[in-house]
Amino acid sequence: MTVRIATWNINSVTARLPKLLEWLESAKPDVLCLQELKCATDAFPFEAVRELGYETAAHGTGRWNGVAIVSRLGLDDVVRDLPGQPGYLADDALLPEVEPRAVAATCGPVRVWSVYVPNGREVDHAHYRYKLEWLEALRKDVLTEAAGERPFAVLGDFNVAPTDEDLFDPAAFEGLTHVTPAERAALASLREAGLQDVVPRPLKYDHPYTYWDYRQLAFPKNRGIRIDLTYGNKPFADAVTDSYVDREARKGKGTSDHAPVVVDLAL
Question: Which residues form the Endonuclease/exonuclease/phosphatase domain (predicted)?
């Protein structure tokens, strides 16, 4: 069977709902991992998505985070939050908060995690340390499934550009998060855990960026970065027949600042 799996930082599922429904109808993914819902779980537009034939496992609080898996292959063994997921202790908080940044499900023959890795903010910020702790928890928590025979992948907004080739201008990111050796080493540790980066092969552009700032005409000028990734185990990677960034979904008004990343599998 052919399975189409995608990931998309939707940047508010409520604000982008027309775009989401339009894209589901046109791209026809079997499984879509969403990040940055910006809505509480019970506020997710379940019915609108269900009318197109999709079930949803959502996890959100209504703030800037939140993740979901939308599937027309079923949703089994749903898990919300990484088993070892750390919390973030904000300056004005008494206790760390475990943010809704991960959800997993088995969708037909494939098991997937949808993840929204913490941004990190600044290198000397507590959020940066939290980001590294979160990535280490992710590595530990996927070891068993990555080593299994079932196709397995972690998809989402990793907020890390794997290499300088994933940046429109490496000099513009000097001293900033998303590109530090520690963050990139965390991604490398996922590869050492048995997952590999399924790199999109675009038809038109040399660099398959997935995020472009809304400001300064970044998208028309293709001043982007690649931070939305698919990390699959060997059975998943071996089944990949095509992958691409859907830049068309980033065009026009009212879009997310990220584009969907699509992977086709023959299973």
Answer: 6-258
